[in-house]
């Protein structure tokens, strides 16, 4: 058997303090998982169950990269997040067993074409064009659980050109990491290589060409993305 076109290379992200790579299978994102961010988006977090959207694996961008300002938007926004890397697959995982499926943690930036997302919301359409575009998933080096444990508290911040834009604490998540893993696994089988972006605190705002965006999470360091001009 031969492929009729060349297979796509496996996307991957760095592993902290190692030359090894973590292969990326799928990227799940939790929508509005911090109450203050839900409110700034005009929603009441106390009334809604968790929901998810996805990004393609090849949307991954490494720490330190310069990316072009994306097309078809006038409102590119940052969303700093904690990322969970799944190392052991499973389905119908209980909350009590969820953390046993985690390989490690990293820092992410869920870049969003907010104007396209807002238009889709008004029309009741999927969010893909606002969320799942090229270079939309900035993922920093992953830290194995053996080194960092399971972060459930600690500051998460986003700075743009040195100015603080977002600030929250991991303890403010509406749905905890064990809950998120369990809920996802009851809808579809999780597999090794899946990443989960766990939501962003309040303070999302626009990025323009020339901006330097830094996301920090206590205990995991920071990642940097530079926004270049449009292609």
Automatic annotation (TrEMBL):
SUPFAM superfamilies: FAH. Gene3D superfamilies: Fumarylacetoacetase-like, C-terminal domain. Residues 27-225 form the Fumarylacetoacetase-like C-terminal domain. Signal peptide: none annotated. Keywords: Hydrolase, Metal-binding. GO terms for molecular function: acetylpyruvate hydrolase activity; metal ion binding. This is Fumarylacetoacetate (FAA) hydrolase. It comes from Actibacterium pelagium.
């Amino acid at each position: 058997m031969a492929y009729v076109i060349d297979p796509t290379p496996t996307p991957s992200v760095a592993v902290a303090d190692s030359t090894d790579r973590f292969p990326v299978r799928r990227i799940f994102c939790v929508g509005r998982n911090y109450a203050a961010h839900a409110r700034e988006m005009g929603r009441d977090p106390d009334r809604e169950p968790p929901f998810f959207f996805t990004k393609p694996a090849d949307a991954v961008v490494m720490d330190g990269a310069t990316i072009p300002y994306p097309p078809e938007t006038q409102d590119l926004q940052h969303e700093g997040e904690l990322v969970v890397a799944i190392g052991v697959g499973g389905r119908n995982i209980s909350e009590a067993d969820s953390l046993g499926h985690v390989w490690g943690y990293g820092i992410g930036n869920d870049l969003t074409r907010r104007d396209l997302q807002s238009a889709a919301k008004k029309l009741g359409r999927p969010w893909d064009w606002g969320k799942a575009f090229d270079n939309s998933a900035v993922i920093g080096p992953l830290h194995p659980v053996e080194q960092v444990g399971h972060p459930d508290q600690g500051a998460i911040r986003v700075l743009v050109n040195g100015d603080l834009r977002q600030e929250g604490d991991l303890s403010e998540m509406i749905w905890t990491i064990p809950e998120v893993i369990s809920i996802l696994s009851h809808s579809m089988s999780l597999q090794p290589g899946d990443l989960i972006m766990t939501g962003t605190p309040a303070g999302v705002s626009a990025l323009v060409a020339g901006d330097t965006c830094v996301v920090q999470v206590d205990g995991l360091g920071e990642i940097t993305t530079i926004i270049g001009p449009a292609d």
